[in-house]
Amino acid sequence: MRLAKLNSFSINIFIILMLCLACKKKIDHKSLKKQKSVMRIEKCYYGTTVDKEEVTLFKLINEGGIYVEVITFGGRVTTIKCPDLQGKMDNVVLGFDSLSQYEKKNPYFGAAVGRYVNRIANGRFSLEGEVYTLAKNNGDNSLHGGLKGFDKVVWIVEEVKETPSFVSVKLAYLSKDMEEGFPGNLQTTVTYTLNNDNSLNIHYEAITDKTTIVNLTNHSYFNLSGDCSNSILDHEVQINANKYVPVNKSLIPTGTLASVEHTPFDFRAAQLLGDVIKNNHEQIEIGDGFDHCWVLNNVSKGYRSVAKAYHSLSGRVLEVLTDQPGMQFYTGNFLDGTLPAPNGGVFNKRSGFCFETQHFPDAPNQPKFPSTTLVPGEKYRTKTTFKFSTKY
Ligand code: BGC
User: pTM here?
Assistant: First the structure.
């Protein structure tokens, strides 16, 4: 009888103990989830510009813990941390560790570039019978929006969204009529959205009150090894393009579109960058590497997958999707070891590559290229996605 009592007593104690353990497990699990994997945005003060404007940093974090940092100065992506095959998180874009470095002359690291990305020959174009003159900030040409393009202004925060499946920050900038020589007040927004499938969408919109030209992109330099002291030559690159835009010695389009067939510009099947870039080809010599716009296939399909990069040592894969007709593939040819990297080193030649989705360079002077003209009443809208994954 006593034994039976004791037994039922110990059974009760056992059940209580188990319940406590289960509860604790639940609580631990919950708090862990909260700490590690809640989709969210964190925000902090980043610095003050020389013109006394405050700059904010937004950290977009997804459930997998991947995060993207964006600052309001130049709408720049300063960090993209994503895992390698072993789950090790590293930053896969080049960037500085202070606002003052971003304010100094630099190669547009992570920037929202506008009003016209890439080159406009002789800093001049005409529109509706008017000739417009732009600042020449690249030899005789205008590059990436001029002396003070969208990469060097502080954008206004228009909207921040936190949802269970995505987080986003929308930045706005009003480029005034004749700013940098471009006609029309251009109201521009760029929205960065991080999703749970590890994709970062970049969505631009713009409207104008006078006919103008627009060509916007993001100028992130990727290094999928996660260490900017490594060269990108061990990356494999694939671009869905049958043609590219050949250029003259000042990197201005010659006006023709050339076939990639039987040339080192053929990335329709993945190529190891280090193998291809050493080819003797006049166009590679001109650019001192690749610095060309590829004519992306299937433009009529709109938003589609256009390119991939793969780094076999880390297993990281970057896929690009866009609705744009072109993509400038730039292999960091002008990085010359003079700019300081946050790890104490410097940014060397070929320490990063850019996949700049865009319209073709110098389109305002090239009647055969797709038009970059925006008229009042029309909305410029474009979307590009950088999607990160891993594979063996
Ligand atoms: C251009 C390069 C230029 C780099 C940094 C790229 O988009 O194509 O020629 O050096 O940006 O300005």
Answer: 0.91
